[in-house]
Amino acid sequence: MTSIRTRFAPSPTGYMHVGGVRTALFAWLLARQSPDGKFILRLEDTDQKREVAGSAEHLIESLHALGIVYDEGPDIGGPYAPYKQSERLDSYRKWAQKLIDAGRAYADPYTAEQIEAFRNQSRDEKRAFLYRDHRPTNPPVWDGKMPLRFKSDPKSYSWHDEVMGDLHSGPEVIDDIIIIKSDGYPTYNFAHIIDDAEMNISHIIRGQEFLSSQPNYMNLYEALNIKAPLFATVPHILGESGNKKLGKRDGAKDVLDYFKDGYLQEAMINFIASMGWNDGSEQEIFSSAELIEKFSLARIQHSGARFDEKRLLWLNGQWIRKLSLDDLYNRCAEFWPESANQVGDDVKKQVLALVQDRLKTLADLPLLTSYFFAEPTPDWTMTTNNNQLSKLSTDEIVTLLNHAKEALSNSNYDADSLQQTLNSLLETTGQKPGILFTLIRIAVSWAPFSPALNETLSTIGRDKVQSRLQNAIQAAESASK
Ligand code: GLU
User: Fold this and answer.
1) Residue 227 lies in a domain
2) 347-366 pLDDT tens trace
3) pLDDT surpasses 70 at 441
């Protein structure tokens, strides 16, 4: 069997979105499944007009951030360097010349206006427009300034796609495509065929948008006498509604932005792999190692995969819980509220341990932890808007807060003792936890959620708990004035 060599071949025309990541990920997983498999990064930078400065670096940074490590690529070289199409022009010329010599490519002499006239004519005659219907009888010698067109050989094809199964096409879809443009650069249609052949690529894994051109590629493979690699066409990613291709507006954002928003690499990989692929079981959480073990092209679905950002959020929460405290702590550096700067690692770790189960993204840290580091500002509406607490009068609330303050001033401050203190407070006040504990929780944190009350109190510490309860009493009194 030949070795598995897959490639990710992005054009540096912008940022990397989840669709691109998924193609790269599937190609990487396939290569990693075989002991001598190789995954290659190739930059397809032949469309000068669409190129965006910095985009190549950005793509590389994104792959690094995702842990999708390539074995050969523009910045690391490899046996088939260069891995950037703009540096391989000689190669495309050489192959184009072979086609010219074999009478299978010709210079396209037409102006844009002439082509427009051909198109209009086909439309008036209700025929499909095909370049091959307008081959010049005496084409000029190609001077490198005119487009060079492939002289196709229209025929039917049947082929196997590793994802889509057995596919067929008729001769009507075969046409004379441009192989070298008037600016001297090859088209994607031509360049990728040459590169995949020269780089010994075993599988082409790419998006559905290329499927309609596949018959033309087959025609080119034949004319060039190149053995085609295996094809695996991955379906579109659809927006949340599930009926439209994912666009910028519905979440096709830059993958690096997800990291800035506090998503973990593991969750991103898990999420993206499961868009259009599953292993046939109910399992939802997959590490990269498990994906490498279980992934197969045959289990990629044929129809579009829905992009479900809520699922990503859920997966992220799951992955945050799975990390060890130290590992999670190391990834949080950028996300702490500023007020946390004044405390040491130990305190921050203690706080992190309390909220680990509640974090959905690392960016939730400030909301969930600020009150451990800085004095929260009482917001009395949090009590009046609370279903349970709104049943009490301000006087009742103040009385409860005074009881709590008293009991907590005498308690030991380890979590167990505090739990006992809180339990006896329930008895002495005759309140339900839903009221008493909620009130104390709000009064010491003024945050929408907090971890177990005894642990929260223990971490905040006696002095601060006392002063915050006193502030809450004052807030209640000024609210009632
Ligand atoms: N340069 C193409 C793109 O960015 C790559 C398609 C392929 O993988 O062959 O869409």
Assistant:
1) yes
2) 999 999 999 999 999 999 99
3) yes
DSSP annotation of 375 reads P
Smallest CA-to-CA distance from 348 within 385, 373, 313, 368 is with: 373
Closest atom, ligand 1, to C-alpha of 8: 8
pLDDT over threshold 90, residue 311: yes
Q: Are 265 and 66 in contact (CB under 8 A)?
A: yes
Q: How far is the CA of 20 from the centre of ligand 1 (A)?
A: 9
**CA 261 – ligand 1 centroid, Å:** 28
DSSP 241-270: TSSSB--GGGT---HHHHHHTT--HHHHHH
Is 473 found in the same domain as 399? Answer: yes
Where residue 113 sits, what CATH number does that domain have? 3.40.50.620
**10 CA from centroid of ligand 1 (Å):** 5
Verify that 197 and 241 share a domain, yes or no. Answer: no
Q: What is the pTM of this model?
A: 0.92
Quick one: pLDDT band at residue 248, thresholds 50, 70, 90? low
Question: Are 190 and 66 part of one and the same domain?
Answer: no
Report the distance separating Cα 50 and Cα 287, nearest Å. 36
**Minimum-distance ligand 1 atom for the alpha carbon of 44:** 1
Q: Are 161 and 297 contained in the same domain?
A: no
Distance, CA of 199 to CA of 79 (rounded, Å): 8
What are φ and ψ of residue 148, in 5° steps? Answer: -105, 125
State both tokens at 295: 């992934």
> Token match 């010994």: residue?
200
Residues 306, 251 contacting (CB under 8 angstroms):
no
Q: Ligand 1: residues within 6 Å at CB?
A: 9-11, 44, 188, 192, 204, 206
DSSP 8-class letter at 388:
T
On whether both 108 and 230 belong to a single domain, the answer is yes
- Report the C-alpha gap between 107 and 99 in whole angstroms: 12
Quick one: 162 and 129 in the same domain? yes
Q: Which residue has the tokens 């002499």?
A: 109
65 CA → ligand 1 middle, Å: 21
How many angstroms is it from 132 CA to the middle of ligand 1? 25
- Please, which residues bridge with residue 41 across strands? 8
Give the closest residue (by CA) to ligand 1 atom 10: 10
Domain boundary among 234, 253, 275: 234
The domain that holds 418 is classified in CATH as 1.10.10.350
Whether 81 is in a domain gets the answer no
**Alpha-carbon torsion, ordered 457, 460, 466, 470, to 10 deg:** -100
Structural domain containing residue 475: 375-480
Residue 38's beta-bridge partner residues?
5
How many domains would you assign to the chain?
4
